[in-house]
Design brief:
There is one protein chain. By secondary structure, the protein is mainly alpha-helical. The chain is about 65% helix and about 5% strand. It is built from twelve helices and six strands. The strands form three sheets. Strands 1-2 form a two-stranded antiparallel sheet. Strand 3 (about 195-200), helix 8 and strand 4 form a beta-alpha-beta unit. Helix 3 packs across helix 4.
Length: about 350
């Protein structure tokens, strides 16, 4: 049993999450997991703990226990303790509470104290020094960049396959599609760069802590984060530009998929999936649906920017840009491998000149 100002809640004896998570996890559903947001939040808290150890703000044994717990979570342990549904309102804050409590309970256990005793406190130890929006903003930016890293590789593979199919099928349309993907990959690469510029701290505590935190986060994440002193408030344009790039890429993907559908459906169709498996055609529809979802999410991002409130923008960025970047990357990987790589000319296949697909 745990209690707060709202009353008591029964918490399972083996649970690493606590009462704040229990109050928000109305619909636990681990199928709606946001791995990049989770990883980013853990890296933010690990970076802060390391700086607090170095500065003496945390006792060494407490800081080491927090770092060990963070490393365990980064390796995939305790994922069953993340019970927040990403479709909940404001998943950023909810994931933040859930991860903080898991780290608190696990590090408490590592230190030798009973689970649930909170000898290592969520606020006094896990979140030490992380006042202000700077840290959540850093986590959201890192989560988007983690998703972009995977999406970037999928887009490069898509471009390569399209250009190769242009030669194999002697169809210039595929080369044109490859050029379109190259263009939007370049645009998104450019739009991702401002996400590396973190807003400067306004509180005096940030004058020494925050620059060291940013350097530690850069080392742990392998992204070249740096402080932009011209930013004293959240810059909505960083998120808007990246979301807009995703929307325009997705609009072109819908058009490309529509044209691929037409190639497959005309009476004298010239191209077919080498396996002749109709299930492969469903990948065209899956990519279309993912692209449409990205397009619709951009509307939410634009509306959030108009509110001109910090919490709304960060929450929407976490709920939409992080999620849709992950989604599009995953669907493209499956599309490339399951559909496009097996696309061959039917007339060549039927003459026996092609024995297998690449």
């Amino acid at each position: 049993m745990e209690s707060d100002w709202q009353g008591e809640i029964q918490i399972p004896a083996n649970a690493y999450w606590g009462i704040r998570t229990a109050r928000t996890a109305f619909f636990p559903n681990r199928q709606h997991f946001l791995p990049n947001l989770v990883k980013a939040l853990i890296l933010v808290k690990k970076s802060a703990a390391l700086i607090n150890i170095e500065s003496g703000s945390l006792e060494t044994h407490i800081g080491n226990a927090i770092v060990q717990a963070a490393d365990e979570m980064l390796s995939g342990q305790w994922c069953d303790q993340l019970i927040i549904n990403s479709s909940s309102v404001d998943p950023l804050q909810l994931y933040n509470h859930n991860i903080t409590e898991v780290l608190s309970n696990r590090s408490t256990e590592i230190s030798g104290a009973p689970l649930g005793s909170y000898q290592i406190s969520p606020e006094r130890h896990i979140n030490l020094g992380q006042s202000g929006s700077n840290f959540l903003s850093s986590a959201v930016r890192l989560a988007i960049l983690l998703g972009w890293k995977d999406l970037s590789l999928a887009l490069l593979d898509l471009e390569r396959l399209l250009r190769r199919k242009s030669l194999e099928l002697r169809k210039e349309d595929f080369n044109n599609y490859g050029a379109i993907i190259e263009h939007y990959h370049s645009r998104l690469s450019e739009a991702s760069q401002p996400l590396l510029k973190l807003i400067s701290g306004t509180a005096r505590i940030h004058e020494t802590f925050y620059p060291r935190f940013v350097e530690k986060l850069r080392q742990l994440s392998l992204f070249n984060f740096r402080i932009d002193n011209s930013k004293t408030y959240l810059d909505h344009m960083d998120f808007l530009k990246f979301s807009s790039g995703l929307k325009e890429l997705s609009t072109e993907l819908v058009r490309i998929v529509r044209n691929l559908h037409l190639m497959n459906l005309v009476a004298d169709q010239s191209y077919s999936v080498g396996s002749q498996n109709k299930e492969s055609y469903k990948l065209l529809d899956a990519l279309t649906m993912a692209a449409i979802q990205v397009i619709s999410s951009d509307t939410a991002v634009c509306l959030a920017a108009q509110t001109d409130t910090l919490d709304s923008m960060l929450s929407i960025a976490a709920d939409h840009i992080v999620k849709e970047t992950e989604l599009l990357g995953c669907v493209l990987i499956v599309f490339n491998q399951g559909y496009l790589s097996g696309l061959i000319a039917k007339n060549i296949c039927h003459t026996g000149l092609v024995a297998s697909t690449v």
